[in-house]
Amino acid sequence: MDIRVLNYFLITAREENITRAAALLHMTQPTLSRQLKGLETELNVALFKRSNHSIYLTREGLLFRQRAQDMVSILERARDELQETSELAGTISVGCGELHSMAELAQLMDDFQKQHPQVKFNLRSGNNQDIKGWVEQGVLDMGLLIEPVDIGKYDFVRMESQEEWGILAHEDSQFADYSAIRPGDLVGTRVITISDRVVQNELGNWSGKYAAQMQNKARYNLLYNAAMLAQQNNGVVICLKLNQRFAHLKYIPLEPKLTLNSVLAWRGQQPHSEAAKAFIAFAQQEKH
Prior knowledge:
By secondary structure, the protein is an alpha/beta fold. It has helices at about 5-15, 20-25, 30-45, 60-80, 100-115, 130-135, 195-205, 225-230, 275-285; strands at about 50, 55, 90-95, 120-125, 140-145, 155-160, 165-170, 190-195, 215-220, 235-240, 250-255, 260, 260-265.
């Protein structure tokens, strides 16, 4: 499978228009159409639905788009690694959840880059499940994960920061004057909660018998989108306390406190670039 054709596919999927994609790729429309048709023949599936003016991904095309992006990313990383010079260089790919400990990881990165200015970091956001999958696939070198998480097959360093849970509620809601949220307070309330199942279990344990009595309005993996729902005073977000502020929303902690830890984890048996190995050693030394 030609990496160039994967790029043709990704650009066409993004533009949803053969004419625009061909212009961006500096090729003729018939040539691009033949390349895409050849890719579909090779995979034995239809990747696109075509109309007079637009082109859309099929269900199979949507699945293949993520796989194609992963393959292109892995190849780009391999090129960077092979071009490393005597001075430590390259790109380290890190998966990051929306965690308070990201500030701690950012400091590690900054301190490391002061020693190795030719090293770059590529950050990719997601929840625990996303990040673990990307590490397994080799798309990422390591990931910042919130506990509890199964790290039996990973090497890791534990971060010092603790992740505190609470809610985001609209300033006009009934909860705006609460100093803390206790089990039972959210009964009958529409809640927007994180999609990570392991963390859901921790929140369920905290809520106890009241967990089943809360109304699930939506689930999220990135807090910004959930906050946009809560800004309409249409439910509350169960979330981590972060260094973020949202207009008209107030953070209120849980009581008794629910705090979790986080780890920076990587596959120990997985080959790593010299830059990634150096950063791992640096993190282990700093967090020892």
